[in-house]
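User: Show me a protein chain along with its predicted structure.
Assistant: Here is one chain, sequence first, then structure tokens.
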Amino acid sequence: MRQIEGCPKALNRSPAFKGSNFVTPNILGEYICGDYQVELSKGKGIFSPNLFGVTVALGDVKQDDLSTCFREIDEATEYMKAL
């Protein structure tokens, strides 16, 4: 699991993270960022070799308006730290 400054690793998986995401199916880690639990995942993009998904949950509820994808892992981790 990748270390992200300011976002400790989550000890338990949120029920909001159900199943596998077909776009970014490879889970890199789950973290606590601010008030949110965040899943960082990786897949292949159509126009880029990598795509990094950031799925955000508050308690047991997925926050679709905060969940997004990035082409670079550094962009994804900076977004997570800003939550």
